[in-house]
Structure formats: C-alpha cells, structure tokens
Amino acid sequence: MNKGGAAGLGGGAGAGSGPTAAAAAAAAQKQKTLLQRVEGDIANIVDNFSHLVNVAKVNDPPVRNSQEAFMMEMRAARMVQAADSLLKLVSELKQTAIFSGFASLNDHVEQRRIEFNQLAEKTDRTLSRIGEEAAASLKELESHYSSSAQKTMQNLQP
C-alpha cells in the first residue's frame, strides 16, 4: 500500500536530544516510515478517486452499468480503507507527540536526580565532619574531666 520514499520533515532527532544515538536513529526511522505511510495512503485515495470518477460515466448497456457499479463500490471501499489508515496514522502521531514530551521530562528528572545525589553526598560529608568534630570535642572534654580536680576528689572520697 505504501509507495515511494519520503524525505525527512526537518528538525529530526539531533545529537544529544535523546538518551542514546540508537534512540535518535529509531525516531528518525519511525518518522520516515510514517511519512511513507502518509504518501502511500494519500496516493491511494487520489488514485481510487480518479478511477471512481472515470467509472461513474453513464453508459447504455445495463450489463456494463452493473460492472461499473461494482467497480465504483470497490474503489469507494479502497478509499475508505486508505482514509481509515490515515486516521490511524493521525492517532499514532498524537500518541508520539504526547510520549515524546516524556523524553524531555525524563531528562529533567535525571538532571534533578543527579543534583539530589550531589546534595546527598555533600550532606553526608558535612555530617561526617560534624561527627568527627563532636568525637574530637568529646575526647578533649573527657581528657579535661579525667585530669580535673573534681574527678580526683571524687576518687579520693569513699
């Protein structure tokens, strides 16, 4: 049903726009396939319409009119199939447009995840430093207490 190749629409998946080069290539291939479907379906509708108009001429022999009526029904059915295919294509394009927005959303989520991981690492380092300072201060206080006069007096008293 598809006829001929198609040129890109422009503004295809550029470098760095997707998570991988393979995803960008897959998106470009899908775009090319969709364009080929559009061209094929439109060519099919135009072709069947022109045949429908040619067959619609009124002739004198009744046998010929019944053959032409059958041809008209067949061409009309083919036009309906091609139009249905175009409607499905439009639906697929809408879904692609909706889900392609998730790629940028995923990029944003990944960026935020990296930022939060960096913040968590910084917080861990700060807490570790605070813990080390508290341990050093506690040791210093313990050494002052053990060498203080109060402890010495408490040990002397019964």
| Coarse structural class | mainly alpha
The H-and-E topology, N to C, reads as: HHH
Average per-residue pLDDT, rounded, comes to 77
Q: What coarse outline follows from CA principal-axis ratios?
A: rod-shaped
- Radius of gyration, CA atoms, in whole angstroms: 38 Å
In brief:
The protein has 158 residues and is an all-alpha fold. The chain is built from 3 helices and no strands.
Describe this structure in words.
The chain is mainly α and 158 residues long. Helix content is 81%, strand content 0%. The protein has helices at residues 21-55, 62-146, 149-156. Helix 1 (21-55) packs antiparallel against helix 2 (62-146). It is rod-shaped. The termini are far apart. Mean pLDDT is 77; it is low at 1-18.
Secondary structure: elements and pairs:
Blueprint: H1 21-55, H2 62-146, H3 149-156
Features:
single chain, 158 residues, mainly alpha, 0% strand, rod-shaped
